[in-house]
Amino acid sequence: MNRRLRLAPWLFLAPALVVAVVFHVWPFLNTVVLSFTDASALGGGSFVGGENYVRLAQDPHFWLATRNTVLYVAVVVPLLVLLPLLLAVLVQPQIRGIGFFRSVFYSPVVASMVVVGLIWTWMLASDGIVNQVLEAARIIDAPLPFLTDSTLLLVSCMLVTVWKGLGYYMVVYLAALGNVSSEYHEAAQVDGANAARRFWSVTVPGVRPTMFLVGLLSAIAAMKVFAEVYVMSYGTAGPGGEARTLVYTIREVGLGLGGQIGYASAMSLALFVLTIGFSAGYLRAQRAEAR
Amino acid sequence: MTPSRRRRAMLPALAILGLTLSACGLSGAETPAADTAESDQPAEVTGKITFSTLQLKPTFTEYIEGVIEDFETEHPGTEIEWIDIPFEGAQEKIATDAAAGTLPDVINLNPNFAQPLEAEGLFLDLDQEVPELRDAYVPGAWDAFQVPEQEGSFGFPWYLTSEVTMYNQAMFEDAGLDPETPPATFDELYAAAEQITEKSDGKIWGMHPALENRFLLDLAKEGVPLLSEDGTEWVFNTPEAVAHVERLTAAYQDGVFPPDSLTEDHSKETEAYQAGRVALFPSGPNFLTIVEENAPDIAEVTGVGAQITGASDAANMSVMGLLVPRSTENKATALKFAEFMTNAENQLAFSQIVTIFPSVTEALADPYFTDDSDGTVESQARKLSAEQLENGRNLLPVQYDDRVKAAVIGKVQLAMKGELSAQEALDQAVAEANSITGM
Fold first, then answer.
1. What's the pLDDT score for residue A189?
2. By the CB < 8 Å criterion, does B120 face chain A?
């Protein structure tokens, strides 16, 4: 192969590589370097070894944020794997007017997270519609403090994440459902399987690879949760900041003129390790199941 | 590929990685306090400078452009390039500019934004550069741009505001309170709030705590020392502060404050007042205009009283300033423009467009701020505010940045919920604040 031909693939790759290096690889390496410094918002800082990581290990805010983030993933991911699949099964049949419902279910995806967060904040306020309905139905005697109780606030944020993500993953599942042959369903029906049985024994195995994909994507998104918590708590992460997540804490530590960029970088790397670790474990589990 | 060839192939990659690592992070920042050599500076007021403001476009475009035009006419050969920075993300933009040594020649900051930059020695010391101007400004405003333990004052005070106590006179009347007598002390304030809530059977909240805006300020007004005398340590966990937190807790648990107010900010307080859900609204007099625009019926029954100052008898004022970085390449023009922008004539014109107050004492003496004979609530608020400014101070220490605020307010929220005692909350707040500010 002559020299020109050997270079050709690199030339085609060059634009994408430049973008990847400038906007992903470089900032990542920069974050790694900064995590070993005492860099502030105003200066490059000096090398401090592993001091930031030692501080991280002793920082209760970091551990609280990690706990909340892991909890967030643990609750949100199963819901985002299952509920959009059920929704996709519901809106899959080509019946008249189904396009309207598909659009309605998809619409939260295109709405801004800030707008969605604000709307839910109004709805979940003490005098909001959710509390009014629950009180009218005599399910509760006094309004539930959705926004001022850290646990309820975190649960509310999780629900908003699920609500907003439903439509997106529904569309992913709709594409996958199209690949499940209707013959399997017909055969199961002939054998006397009811709808629930067909769902578990035909649909779910048919879309299992997509379920893994949705699980992985939603987990990575959930690890980075920020806007829901920030907007619904007016930037406080709930009373005492007890509903804080990792990205919220990274922002709090690193932003502003007094921002501790070195420490925030160390925290970012911890989040990176958590995300990569989870993804690696998840992929390994998928491969083991595939075998 | 043989191992030796593979090693050779890896060398360039390692070299690139090494260069990349050495180029990022540690070596990226400029020396911030670099002075531009005096010899390079034009001695006369001429040439181009940049001027940045905080979120004044588009509302005040006409005014700012008018002042710039006047300056350019008065000083031929000068050119001012105006940049407006939205409040959201301003700190990040300023930090980036400061680290890169590209701050505008004249920059609009408040004392809390300015303090970390002042501490780095980034701004010209006006006590040295223009000592003759000091006496023209409200003393408390000039002093707001000082750094604890450091010589000098770094900002031309620009516009000021000073909180007044707005209240719904109709709700006062319904609760059996005198609608013409606003509360004058913290005791009267909380007593009025409680009475209004009680008489309305909890339908109206007496007050909104707006913790992020008011908590530490109220402690300062109550005479609680926020910092140690040498300014090196937060020390606000005093018995007076405990009593204040206990009062807040009782008011929250008795339903005097809205249930969601623990985490809500000042905008929600404004909404609640405009919606007729809250009776007392201590805030800047500029909010009168906002209430009038959004809720004319509430504005009609709004009365106004002086800022409640508590045991310290010190009124707080918020200050905006103009600072000139030491890195400016045109010091003479930058200083002259900042002085021009903040002079009595221009500030008086500015404060007639919007309810803000000039930082120049001469402008404050104008009848616009001293005459309330037209009987409107706006002119009353203006007069009250202007009187407060004469002896007003920026009561919030410049070290009270967003992180310290979040830590302190977080603990107070937990106390108000009953999860911590007032003493525990304040002890933890002080410890956390000291750890954040490295005290």
1. 87
2. yes
A179, containing H or E segment: none
The H or E element containing residue A221 is helix A208-223
Architecture per CATH, B164-314+401-436:
3-Layer(aba) Sandwich (3.40)
Kind of pairing, strands B164-168 and B278-283?
antiparallel
Is residue B328 classed as helix, strand or coil in its secondary structure? coil
Q: In B180-234, which ranges are E strands?
A: 205-207
Helix (H), strand (E), coil (C) string for A222-262 = HHCCCHHHHHHCCCCCCHHHCCCCHHHHHHHHHCCCCCCHH
Contact A42 B268 (CB under 8 A): no
CA distance B335 to B337: 5
- In Å, how far is A1's CA from the nearest CA of chain B? 17
Confidence band for B40, pLDDT divided at 50, 70 and 90: low
- CATH of region B40-161+318-382: 3.40.190.10
CB of A206 within 8 Å of any CB in chain B? no
The verdict on a CB contact (< 8 Å) between A258 and B258 is: no
Report d(CA B157, CA B321) in Å as an integer: 4
- For A157-180, letters b (16+ CB in 10 Å) and e give bbbbbbebbbbbbbbbbbebbeeb
Residue B329 DSSP class: S
pLDDT over 70 (residue B36)? no
Q: Using a CB-CB distance cutoff of 8 angstroms, which residues of chain B are in contact with residue A238?
A: 263
Does pLDDT of B188 surpass 60? yes
Nearest CA in chain B to A61: B407
ipTM for the assembly: 0.86
In chain B, where does the domain assigned CATH 3.40.190.10 lie? Answer: 40-161+318-382, 164-314+401-436
CATH number of A60-290: 1.10.3720.10
Q: Which of residues 244-263 of B touch A (CB under 8 A)?
A: 258-260, 262-263
Q: How far is residue B221 from each of residues A280, B31, B166, B358, measured CA to CA in Å?
A: 56, 39, 18, 23
Determine which of B21, B24, B398 to mutate to test the interface with A (most A C-beta atoms within 10 Å): B24
Taking only the tens place, the pLDDT of each residue in A22-42 is 999 999 999 999 999 999 887
Residue spans of beta strands (DSSP E) within B135-242: 156-161, 164-168, 205-207
| Chain A neighbors of B205, CB-CB under 8 A | none
DSSP assignment, residue B233?
S
Q: Residue A258 is nearest to which of B17, B265, B401, comparing CB atoms?
A: B401
Helix (H) or strand (E) holding B32: none
Count contacts between A and B (CB, < 8 Å). 118
pLDDT tens-digit readout, B236-289: 999 999 999 999 999 999 999 999 999 999 999 999 999 999 999 999 998 998
> Is the pLDDT reported for residue B39 higher than 50?
yes
| Inter-chain touch B26–A46, beta carbons under 8 Å | yes
